[in-house]
Request: fold
Amino acid sequence: MLRRRGYRLTTQRRAVLDVIARSRDHLTPGEIHQQVVRRHPGVGLVSVYRTLALLADMGLICEVHVGGNCRSYLLRRPLGHHHHLVCSDCGRVVDFSDCDLGQLEKRLAEDTGYEIEGHLLEFAGRCPDCRAATFT
Amino acid sequence: MLRRRGYRLTTQRRAVLDVIARSRDHLTPGEIHQQVVRRHPGVGLVSVYRTLALLADMGLICEVHVGGNCRSYLLRRPLGHHHHLVCSDCGRVVDFSDCDLGQLEKRLAEDTGYEIEGHLLEFAGRCPDCRAATFT
DNA sequence: GTATCTGCAAAAACTTTGCAATGTA
DNA sequence: TACATTGCAAAGTTTTTGCAGATAC
Reply:
């Protein structure tokens, strides 16, 4: 990972990034810390918070809002503009990038006079695995 | 307000609802409490939390995620399905209901195997007033 | 009159900050 | 070696809970 942006590559940061990258789910700071500690006892929750702030600033991770905690993070897999489809059972996230909101955005701008800067779009649903689990 | 759903209509609840209904902005529990206290000193923050939980359960208010705090509430003006366009300067919210995501939703369902249950869509932008304020 | 609500105070959860010690580059 | 980064502990916030007294119906 290209952390040569002036920041040092420490064990802690590597560990946090590793946990986030490994997970297909979105994780809260607490959950991330728990997982980090498994392999690296002694790493403080504080470092997790600090690392998350850093990664968020750099745009390497992003938040998930649908389904509970708004401070759940996720690796920004496609690095550019994209959205999430979140499983309401297991939390598993699938990314997609073609949202095609241009028309709506344009009409809204005209109707309201707002100068639109961006949007937040997330879908909630049940992933194939969780659906299958229902029909035991 | 039709609170005859088995719940009692108390001064506190009326006050909280009043503040939310009055505001065109989205407010955090703390902000709501501050405003409630102005007219009704002695009302506890606890009651605000409890009332918010109640109103949220009943679907009378909804959250705003764009721009900071994810626990900002807003009166559910059009009572059905709708979305928000939030001013990134003053927080003022405009509602709209035609989001036209059916196609995208269908394609996502096919591509991913998810059974889609719902979506969260919010736009961020600058409202006419705030835009005007820039060109002093 | 009674079951629902409220406020207080205290607890629990979550997040940020100060500082000496540590580890990367 | 030097300075960014860490962990601890402590302080701030935010949210929840227990309980006795108040109040809507």
